[in-house]
């Protein structure tokens, strides 16, 4: 078969086409690289032994968080082994959750303080701040949380209208100015968190919530009550909710802590901030 050599003008045209294709290829934006970021690891610690309302919340949390993990870039492990704080096991995780308790032994407490001072992330719920003896762990209750002792609570568990006080923080920037929480029992504290320069209050009870509670002897009628906050010296968030309404006689939950989509947005955005900053 005889080869046909292009004429001079045709060869020039072909060279121009090749040059244009090369230039266009150089100018084209590079293909979007697939994300290779590994998911951050979340460890949830709990006891699950006290108060049916807290146990109900723990069961919900251990179902809800795993179903949201993959699409939000994290893995979720739950454990009742609080000694992971003492023996360094917690160091394999970027974020630790306290679902219904706080460390009890000196070694657990020292390990948690090391973890936080070393840059670990923490999200605590409801009873994780409860104490009437803050002097027994002053770093945690007075400095880290800043709340001091438990002062009062509402009863029975109800929703509350919350006012978002800081919409610039990563955990609250997608929240509206006010929103309705899920049902919970609400705690107040001996310390005024507004006077602590390290504490940034993210949301508090809006005045439209009053009276808050169903028992006249355990109802808030006025006042200032922080619900969500962070400490600027640490990667931490505290959420006052985490107590479902219960029919105690039949051990039946009457509410869900994850019923509020807006409140859930805070949890997921907060976890991402804790796990990736």
Automatic annotation (TrEMBL):
Residue ranges constituting the ThuA-like domain according to the UniProt record: 46-252
Signal peptide region: 1-33
A family per Pfam: ThuA
Key words, A-Z: Signal
InterPro entries, A to Z: Class_I_gatase-like, ThuA-like
Hydrolase is among the record's keywords: no
SUPFAM superfamilies in alphabetical order: Class I glutamine amidotransferase-like
Protein name in UniProt: ThuA-like domain-containing protein
């Amino acid at each position: 078969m005889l080869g046909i050599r292009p004429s001079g003008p045709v060869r020039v045209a072909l060279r121009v086409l090749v040059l244009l294709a090369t230039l266009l290829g150089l100018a084209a934006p590079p293909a979007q690289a697939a994300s290779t970021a590994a998911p951050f690891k979340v460890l949830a610690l709990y006891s699950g032994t006290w108060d049916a309302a807290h146990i109900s919340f723990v069961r919900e949390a251990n179902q809800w968080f795993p179903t949201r993990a993959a699409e939000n870039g994290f893995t979720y492990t739950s454990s009742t082994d609080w000694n992971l704080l003492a023996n360094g096991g917690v160091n394999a995780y970027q974020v630790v959750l306290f679902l219904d308790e706080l460390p009890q032994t000196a070694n657990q407490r020292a390990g948690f303080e090391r973890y936080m001072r070393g840059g670990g992330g923490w999200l605590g719920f409801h009873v994780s701040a409860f104490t009437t003896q803050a002097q027994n762990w002053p770093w945690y209750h007075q400095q880290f949380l800043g709340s001091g002792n438990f002062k009062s609570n509402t009863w029975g568990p109800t929703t509350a209208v919350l006012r978002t006080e800081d919409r610039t923080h990563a955990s609250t920037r997608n929240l509206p100015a006010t929103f309705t929480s899920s049902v919970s029992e609400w705690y107040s504290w001996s310390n005024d968190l507004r006077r602590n320069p390290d504490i940034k209050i993210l949301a508090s009870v809006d005045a439209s919530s009053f009276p808050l509670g169903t028992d006249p002897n355990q109802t808030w009628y006025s006042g200032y009550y922080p619900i969500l906050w962070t400490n600027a010296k640490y990667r931490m968030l505290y959420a006052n909710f985490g107590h479902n309404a219960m029919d105690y006689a039949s051990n039946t939950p009457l509410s869900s802590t994850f019923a509020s989509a807006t409140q859930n947005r805070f949890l997921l955005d907060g976890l991402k901030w804790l796990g990736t900053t």
